[in-house]
Structure formats: C-alpha cells, structure tokens
Amino acid sequence: MRQIAVAIHSNYLPGLAEKAEKFIKALAERCPDAVLLVGGYWGHMKDVVDVALRNGLRVVAVLPIEREDVHLPREVIVLRTGCEYRCRSVVMVRSADAVAVLGGGVGTAIEAFMAYAMGRPVFILSNVGAHTDRLKEAYPEYFDERKAVKIVYVDDPVKMAELVCAAEGGVKTDFG
C-alpha cells in the first residue's frame, strides 16, 4: 500500500480540475491500492477527494484546526490534527511515501519544500497556471545544495501518475 500526499490549490484555477481528474483516474488505474492524503475538502482538494472516491481509492483528510468542522463524505478517513494549516501539512507530508504537487499557491509550494526536506519523492505538475509553475524555473532539479531528492516536473497528469506509482518511498530522513 502506497500513501500519496496530493498537494493542490485550496481555491479554483481554470483547467486545474480537469488535470487533477486525469491524474487521479490514472493513479487509480496504476495504483489501485493507493491511499491519498489530502489537506482538506474545499477548493481543488474537494475535486481530488470526489474523483478518488468515485474511482475506488481510499482517502485520508488531514484537517487543520481552523477547518475541522468541514463536512466530508463518510468514506473519507478524517484526522483532526489540532494543528494550524502548516503544521497539518507536516503531518500529511511526513505520512506520505511520495508527494504529488498538482498546482497551487504558497501553501502547496510549502508542502513541496517540506517533502524535499523530508526526503520524500516530489512530483510537480507543470504548466497548470499556478504559482507553483515558477518552481521549475527557480529549481530545475533540486531545491538546494543537499540534493535530498531530485524534483520531477511533468507536464502530463497521466505520465505523472505513472511516475508517482513507480516511485520509491524516498529516504525518510529529516535533513533539518
């Protein structure tokens, strides 16, 4: 069983829902036993959860204290962390074998950086019209000189699902 954290915008961006759906459907086909870890049930995170459930994937929502009252589908396992947003992201990313960044703002980018710092494989969907698109230009292979894990940028959500499913679990070590 593979636990995959999915980091995605908590609001809405044009065309991102369709790309997320392609990724989740391809993931369900290639890793049917995967468990998705998400940070909530609003914005595009809701899209990810709904598509995952329709395609037979298990979902764990790692909720921040500010949004613990959100109503989730009964099939979703809910973790009420008691943590604010960034702290919740630590729990989500640390629990993952790999992190799939589908596009977003600073919170999504923070999750990518956390994954890198924790030695988790990081996959970033490029050209989605989000702030995370800038990461490829700033950090083409690694986020720093430690070269904890090579960042994998992918333009195609189906190809990204293939790569995420094939990824090893990373070094599972904190670098600081």
Automatic annotation (TrEMBL):
InterPro entries: LDcluster4. Pfam families: LDcluster4. This is LOG family protein. It comes from Pyrobaculum aerophilum (strain ATCC 51768 / DSM 7523 / JCM 9630 / CIP 104966 / NBRC 100827 / IM2).
